[in-house]
Amino acid sequence: MPGLIKGKEVHFDEDYLHVTLEDGRIISTPMAWYPELQRASLQDLKHYRLICQATGIEWESLDYHLSIESMIYKDTSAAA
User: Fold this and answer.
1) How do residues 33-46 score in pLDDT, each as one tens digit?
2) CATH number of the CATH domain containing 60
């Protein structure tokens, strides 16, 4: 569907969650925004799948779902 922000691949480092989009852009957001993911093991983090026509990410073993669009528009004012 046109206009959807679709993921292609997910990567992690100590500080950031990186999502490569279908169009080649990369979104990076702080892992601190996702405490459930920050506490997870590397093994659990590696076992993700793209859901909802690749507009979301699911970590089934963690029972955690993330909208890729929410990574772009996340309201960080509550953290300030």
Assistant:
1) 999 999 999 999 99
2) 3.30.2020.40
Kindly give the parts of the chain with pLDDT less than 50.
77-80
Residue 2 located in a structural domain:
no
Residue that the structure tokens 């890729």 belong to: 68
Query: Which amino acid is located at 38 in the chain?
Result: Q
The phi-psi region of residue 18 (left if phi > 0; otherwise alpha if psi is between -120 and 50; otherwise beta) is beta
Q: What is the pTM of this model?
A: 0.86
Residues present in the chain in total: 80
The dihedrals phi and psi of 18, each to the nearest 5 degrees, come to -115, 130
